[in-house]
Design a protein that fits this description.
Elements: E1 7-12, E2 17-20, H1 22-28, H2 32-35, E3 44-46, E4 61-65, E5 72-79, E6 83-90, H3 92-127, H4 131-146, E7 150-156, E8 162-167, H5 177-185, E9 191-193, H6 196-202, H7 206-213, E10 217-225, E11 228-237, H8 247-276, H9 286-296, E12 302-309, H10 312-319, H11 321-338, E13 344-349, E14 352-358, H12 362-377, E15 391-398, H13 406-422, E16 427-430, H14 433-439
Parallel strand pairs: 15-16
Antiparallel strand pairs: 1-2, 1-6, 3-4, 4-5, 5-6, 7-8, 7-11, 9-10, 10-11, 12-14, 12-15, 13-14
Helix pairs in contact: 3-4, 3-8, 4-8, 6-7, 10-11, 11-12
Length: 440
């Protein structure tokens, strides 16, 4: 065979080489004689990225060096009766250019898909009505964006703890949530791990937990906005995974959007709380009290217990408002200890508190009032509870089906409280029928 700028290879029906020219032998890195008897499949394999399926016609196909997959040739098949003649031309540079172009198109397509996800997530984040709903949107969006088997969102809670707010993770308690959040929150960076050994270096035991859970890779990002760390999200992969250059910016974009929405939700929650709660004691204010009483009244026997701290003005005048505020907070704390979990304890104004509770009869309401007075008196043997409070307490009852409004029932309890204060204070008075008629 003459030396051509292409390879010519004769193969039989089984693909065994019968002859080849010098060009192909040089390309294969061997001598012509050593090619004879070898299978062409040992030297060339079809490329998965070829546009033309290997089963279609006589080619041409892009085929790769079977040993390295780093070189490519263009192969055309011609039948000669006993087998095939393969014409082989160097195509490595063309193959790399096509592969690069294909990757660019794939990246562009992923970019369009991811931008669409970011826009959809932005709308969903802005309309989320709670942190749990928002976390669910983030977990779903990140799972779709990265084609992850599992995604989870972990949030810091007001009590200082952290937990999974949405999504799933494969570790079943084998991974410390706080350690995972700290991994991305402290440096405020996206972390990409493509094999368990990398994770083991970052957090001892993390790699072992990944292997036990069948996790091969993950990507995680902090949820951070204006110096506030809300937590983190993580997407977990049970297959080998690499990350392109857009993976980290996408994670940052989604995390930043979610963190901004979390900040808005928490601001709204604080404003709503401030509108319905007392600033000094943290207890419900008059607005929230009356709304709760309105729901309670008519459906059950409702009691209003009106409490006025005796001598509070003297404390304010002598020791100042800060001392007065401390006294109010302590009184509010004791009232909460004295009542049942479903009773409403509110600061009504000044040194006045009102408790709304559903009761079986007036005697139950009086029992609650007596317990309140005892708790306010404090325990002289307990240093943390030694400060005694005196209080005048009035109790008013609205029967089932009453047409009274909440503020009317509170007014009746207020009148009974004034009777208690006029009688010397530090006692309880139940609104009598004549007081009810007068107040009505």
């Amino acid at each position: 065979m003459t030396a051509l700028q292409v390879g010519v290879v004769h193969v039989d029906r089984r693909g065994v080489i019968g002859d080849a020219n010098e060009w192909f032998a040089a390309w294969a890195g061997t001598r012509r004689g050593e090619l004879v008897g070898r299978s062409i499949d040992q030297l060339l394999v079809h490329s998965d990225e070829d546009l033309l399926p290997r089963e279609v016609g006589d080619g041409p196909w892009i085929m790769l060096d079977a040993a390295t997959h780093e070189r490519a040739v263009l192969v055309t098949r011609n039948s000669d009766g006993d087998g095939d003649v393969l014409v082989v031309a160097e195509a490595s540079e063309r193959w790399r250019a096509l592969s690069d172009l294909r990757q660019r198109y794939a990246l562009a397509d992923r970019t369009r898909t991811r931008l669409q996800l970011v826009m959809e997530a932005s709308v969903a984040f802005s309309t989320a009505t709670s942190e749990e709903v928002l976390a669910g949107v983030l977990a779903d969006t990140t799972a779709r964006a990265y084609r992850a088997e599992e995604s989870a969102v972990y949030l810091h809670r007001p009590d200082g703890s952290s937990d999974r707010a949405a999504g799933t993770d494969p570790f079943e308690g084998r991974l410390d949530v706080e350690a995972l959040i700290a991994l991305v929150s402290a440096p405020r960076r996206v972390v990409k791990i493509v094999e368990p050994g990398e994770a083991e270096v970052l957090i001892p035991g993390f790699g072992a937990a990944m292997r036990a859970a069948g996790v091969r890779a993950f990507i995680a990002a902090p949820l951070h906005h204006e110096e506030i760390d809300f937590g983190a999200f993580a997407s977990w992969f049970h297959h080998d995974r690499t990350f392109d250059d857009e993976a980290a910016p996408l994670a940052e974009a989604l995390a930043n959007q979610a963190a901004q929405a979390l900040a808005t939700l928490r601001l709204q929650a604080r404003l709503a709380h401030a509108a319905t709660h007392d600033e000094v004691t943290g207890l419900p204010n008059r607005r929230l009290l009356e709304a709760g009483m309105s729901r309670m009244m008519g459906a059950s026997v409702c009691a209003a217990i009106f409490i006025d701290l005796d001598g509070f003005k003297g404390v304010n005048d002598r020791f100042g408002h800060q001392a007065g505020d401390r006294m109010l907070r302590e009184a509010g704390s004791r009232l909460l200890r004295a009542v049942r979990a479903h009773d409403i304890v509110a600061r009504y104004g000044g040194d006045e508190f009102v408790i709304a509770c559903d009761v079986a009869d007036p005697e139950v309401a009086m029992d609650i009032a007596r317990r309140i007075l005892d708790v306010l008196h404090g325990d002289p043997d307990d240093p943390a509870d030694a400060l005694p409070f005196r209080a005048s307490i009035g109790v008013a009852i609205a029967p089932i089906g009453s047409m009274l409004l909440a503020d009317q029932l509170i007014r009746r309890a207020d009148l009974a409280m004034y009777r208690a204060k006029s009688a010397g204070g530090d006692r309880i008075m139940l609104a009598e029928s004549w007081e009810i008629e007068a107040a009505g």
